[in-house]
């Protein structure tokens, strides 16, 4: 059997501890290629770079940095750098969790979305941030679960249209309670999410996304799982269609009130 080909990427940049930990975790599970941004692109979401030239920096035959976004990196990995289609794309390990609504901002999860859109089985790993900057990220815990879950995904692959977003609690390995399959939760975001300060000249400046981390109670959610000390595995797909509304809006459109005959300037 051919060794699996695995493409790694992230949004924290090719030199981040997270992607190095991920590579260590999966190194002996297949032939590994790393194609990642040359610097941090966190919260890059699903952006493609359209207005500047992109360049590939080959550090060695298996490690490539790109002066672009995580989504750019997946495209370059699949269509320019890898010798054949990979069995699996793994993004991360992100420095900080990607839970609930975070997945829409996350470059880490978007790299896996891009892999899934382009027809390759994909996963994203994120490690909860420590409670303060003086405390360490528990990468040993993340490494253990990244390996176990990649191994499982190679053995029992999902449909490539479903990607797995995995969040790991920032606890010592022995303090993690297990793995839960979850759905996306809901954060409570309000005006406290934007912090206003003043510079020495009295002019205001702002930090966004720094407010309290409250969320709606839901025992099935990713937020709840991490809060309780479990690894959260959320299956995601990119069909954003709200199917119940289609039926409702079909009738709405059939009322025909949008025809040119009703318009004021007809
Ligand atoms: Mg990041």
Word description of this protein:
With 266 residues, the protein is of the alpha/beta class. The chain has one domain: Stationary-phase Survival Protein Sure Homolog, Chain: A (3-Layer(aba) Sandwich). Helix content is 26%, strand content 23%. It contains six helices and eleven strands. The chain has helices at 17-26, 70-81, 107-117, 139-155, 222-227, 243-254, and strands at residues 5-9, 31-37, 56-60, 63-66, 88-95, 122-127, 163-168, 179-181, 194-198, 204-208, 231-236. The strands form two sheets. Strands 3-4-2-1-5-6-7-11-8 form a nine-stranded mixed sheet, with helices on both faces. Strands 9-10 form a two-stranded antiparallel ribbon. α1 packs across α4 (139-155) and α2 packs parallel to α3 (107-117). It binds magnesium ion. Magnesium ion (MG) binds at residues 11-12, 42, 94-95, 108.
Question: How is this structure best summarized?
Answer:
This protein has 266 residues and is α/β, with parallel strands linked by helices.
Fraction in helix? 25-40%
pLDDT averaged residue by residue = 92
Bound molecules: magnesium ion
Per CATH, the architecture is 3-Layer(aba) Sandwich
Give a count of the beta strands, DSSP E runs of length 2 or more: 11
Tell me the domain tally: 1
Strand percentage: 15-25%
**Poorly predicted spans:** none
Order of helices and strands: EHEEEHEHEHEEEEHEH
As an assembly, this protein is single chain
CATH-derived topology: Stationary-phase Survival Protein Sure Homolog, Chain: A
Most strands sheet: 9 strands, mixed
What integer value in Å does the Rg equal?
21 Å
Can you identify the CATH class?
Alpha Beta
How are the strands of the largest sheet arranged? 3-4-2-1-5-6-7-11-8
Under CATH, the homologous superfamily reads Survival protein SurE-like phosphatase/nucleotidase
> What distance lies between the first and last C-alpha atoms, to the nearest angstrom?
68 Å
Which of globular, elongated, flat, extended, rod-shaped describes the shape? globular
Structural class: alpha/beta
């Amino acid at each position: 059997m051919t060794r699996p080909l695995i493409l790694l990427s992230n949004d924290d940049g090719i030199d981040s501890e997270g992607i190095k930990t991920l590579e260590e975790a999966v190194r002996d599970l297949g032939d590994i290629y790393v194609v990642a941004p040359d610097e941090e692109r966190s919260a890059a979401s699903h952006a493609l770079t359209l207005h500047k030239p992109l360049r590939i920096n080959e550090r060695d035959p298996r490690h490539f940095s790109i002066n672009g976004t995580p989504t750019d990196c997946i495209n370059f990995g699949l269509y320019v750098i890898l010798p054949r289609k990979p069995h699996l794309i793994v993004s991360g390990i992100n420095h900080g969790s990607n839970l609930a609504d975070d997945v829409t901002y996350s470059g880490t999860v978007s790299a896996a979305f891009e892999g899934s859109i382009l027809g390759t089985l994909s996963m994203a790993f994120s490690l909860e941030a420590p409670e303060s900057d003086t405390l360490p990220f528990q990468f040993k815990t993340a490494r253990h679960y990244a390996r176990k879950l990649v191994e499982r995904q190679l053995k029992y692959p999902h449909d490539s249209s479903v990607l797995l977003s995995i969040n790991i609690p920032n606890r010592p390995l022995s303090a993690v309670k297990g793995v839960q399959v979850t759905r996306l939760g809901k954060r409570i975001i309000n005006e406290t999410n934007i912090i206003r300060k003043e510079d020495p000249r009295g002019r205001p400046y702002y930090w966004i996304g720094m407010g309290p981390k409250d969320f709606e109670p839901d025992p099935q959610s990713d937020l709840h799982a991490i809060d309780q000390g479990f690894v959260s595995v959320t299956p995601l797909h990119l069909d954003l269609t709200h199917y119940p509304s289609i039926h409702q809006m079909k009738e709405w459109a059939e009322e025909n009130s949008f025809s040119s005959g009703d318009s004021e300037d007809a």
